[in-house]
Specification:
The structure holds two protein chains of two kinds. By secondary structure, chain A is of the alpha/beta class. Chain A is 35% helix and 20% strand. Chain A is built from 13 helices and twelve strands. In chain A, the strands form three sheets. A five-stranded mixed beta sheet of chain A has the order 1-7-4-2-3. A four-stranded mixed beta sheet of chain A has the order 8-12-11-10, with helices on both faces. In chain A, helix 2 links the parallel strand 2 and strand 3. In chain A, helix 3 crosses helix 13. Chain A is globular and about 55 Å long. By secondary structure, chain B is mainly beta. The model of chain B has no long low-confidence stretch (mean pLDDT 95). Chain B has one domain. The chains are: A alpha/beta, B mainly beta. The interface between A and B is large, with 37 and 41 residues. Strand 9 of chain A pairs antiparallel with strand 8 of chain B, so a sheet runs across the interface.
């Protein structure tokens, strides 16, 4: 089995880019990644890519070049980017390939994501009665978590404040202006207890990575972070996922907890070893709960840690250093790869303006419907 | 004008009082809500779920959902509504619209009971009803 390294990274700015299709944003990211690694598309041996709303990822082929290369489209909701990365990881780890591309892109219209009950195997009334909204799921999940674990509403606001602060320092972020805590707390409620500024918005963007075996990397005379561990896991009985008309009374672990444990075991490291983390922040509650689900703290500790600045750029575990989904928006196909892109930049010392000092181990976790999580641990 | 349910198979009426319908798996007694349909249905017996439980979580929908939401009015006339999960002891946790205008009164763990909530009015004046839960 080969080790897998990330030797190139590219990104199209997230947010809204009038007149540039999602596909072309993906293309931009791939070309930037290829240039970063100093290779040509004709060198690429495989590709995995995904987009939820901007067409098939393999529509990139005529634009990149019809080389006959293996290209497989990935569709895993918001975890699409993470799943594309995992697919590329296993392609090289297996020894089958040496060099490939993973890409994700999207271009969503404004407003909340539409839900189609039948596409999710649910009855029409569930949508008609007004319960098929991801915003409600996030509101209810954090509402209960706060009640059981002593998290206060202000802590939610502080997560958003950090996100916009970090976004203001990140060239690829959408929201580039800091937003004060008062404004965040007093903005309109979307789904209690979450206000407008506490939710990510559907957006546009593209991100791409070049993966290589250690042998190929050395052949090319390059260096790049090593993928120490990577795992995709789905839900088990008793998890709490979006679009669930009912839940088991007996609770079980989340897919994030399961994927996280698997990735740490593969990597041979623990949460305390991690220097920088990009964890799913669809809304502020998600970042808070994911701190515990990814093993970084016990349930309830987030209240104290966040107030102490633990997750700030100069804290012990800088979290969502590019502002996360809150500041970058959520182009479904791309976000999972944006997280890894950000870790790659941090580990290579190229995270200008938001650089975490001496970042050696980077951790990313992306979560998507109907309940899956992709985790990757990188070493500089 | 007669009331009619939002969908068949969600609840039934006994002496005017609603009973929430669910399924109980024949093999192991595991509860399901809503009652499964299609090929899965043969694996379950239809049962009345408990009418009382506790509030497991809740939220308030503050903006008018996009399609396929079939509620009354439009963006301007939209009234926020509450949604929650109710733990029915020893059975299952069900997602449900919540009745109540004072959203600040909801507290996780509070006792709740099954009710019917008018969802919208049709052109002929008939009311489309949904199951719901309210403070007990």
């Amino acid at each position: 089995m080969s080790d897998v390294h990330i030797i190139g990274a590219g990104i199209h700015p997230f947010g809204r880019t009038e007149g540039v299709s999602g596909l072309d944003q993906g293309l931009f990211a791939v070309n930037e990644a290829l240039a970063d690694a100093g290779i040509a598309w004709t060198d690429v041996q495989f590709a995995f890519g995904g987009s939820a709303a901007a067409g098939n990822a393999d529509a990139l082929l005529p634009r990149l070049g019809l080389t006959g290369v293996q290209f497989i489209n990935i569709a895993n909701g918001c975890a699409t980017g993470g799943s594309a990365l995992l697919s590329g990881y296993w392609a090289i780890k297996s020894g089958e390939f040496d060099l490939g591309v993973v890409v994700g892109f999207d271009k969503h219209p404004r407003g909340a994501f539409n839900a189609d009950p039948e596409a999710s195997g649910l009855p029409m009334w569930y949508g008609e009665v007004g319960m098929m909204l991801t915003t409600q799921f996030f509101g209810m999940k954090i509402q209960r978590y706060m009640a059981l674990n002593g998290i206060t509403p202000e802590t939610l606001g502080m997560v958003a404040e950090k996100a916009f602060q970090n976004g203001s320092k990140t060239p690829h972020a959408w929201r580039r202006e800091p937003v004060g805590l008062n404004q965040i707390m007093n903005s309109d409620l979307v789904s209690d207890p979450l206000t407008k500024y506490m939710f990510c918005s559907p957006a546009e963007g593209g991100a791409a990575l070049i993966l290589a075996s250690d042998k190929k990397m050395r052949e090319l005379g390059l260096k790049g972070p090593k993928m120490r561990g990577a795992a995709v896991r789905t839900r088990v009985n008793g998890s709490f996922e979006v679009f669930s008309p009912s839940l088991d009374i007996k609770r079980g672990p989340s897919p994030t907890e399961i994927a996280s444990a698997a990735a740490y075991e593969m990597a041979g490291v623990g949460p305390d070893d991690i220097d920088v983390a990009q964890i799913q922040d669809t809304e502020c509650g998600a970042e808070i709960m994911h701190m515990a689900e990814n093993g970084f703290c016990a349930n309830g500790e987030q209240e104290k840690l966040i107030h102490e600045g633990y997750t700030q750029l100069d804290g012990k575990l800088p979290t969502n250093t590019d502002g996360g989904c809150l500041a970058c928006g959520e182009p479904i196909g791309a976000s999972g790869l944006r997280q890894v892109y950000e870790n790659v930049q941090q580990l290579r010392g190229r995270a200008e303006g938001r650089q975490v000092a001496k970042a050696r181990l980077g951790y990313s976790q992306v979560y998507g419907a109907p309940g899956l999580s992709a985790v990757a641990i990188l070493e500089a | 004008m007669a009331d009619r349910p939002l969908a068949d198979g969600l609840y039934r009426l006994e002496d005017g009082a609603p009973r929430l319908l669910g399924g109980r798996r024949k093999s192991d007694g595991k509860y399901a809500f809503p009652m499964p349909t299609g090929a899965q249905a043969t694996l379950y017996d239809q049962v009345d779920l408990a009418s009382e439980g506790t509030l497991w979580s809740y939220t308030v929908q503050r903006f008018r959902p996009k399609t396929p939401y079939a509620g009354p009015g439009d963006d301007k006339t939209f009234k926020p509504y509450a949604v929650g999960y109710i733990e029915l002891p020893d059975q299952i946790i069900v997602e449900s619209p919540l009745r109540g205008d004072d959203f600040s009164a909801f507290k996780i763990g509070m006792p709740m009971r099954l009710t019917l909530i008018p969802f919208r009015e049709e052109a002929d004046g008939a009311r489309v009803m949904t199951y719901g839960f309210e403070a007990a």
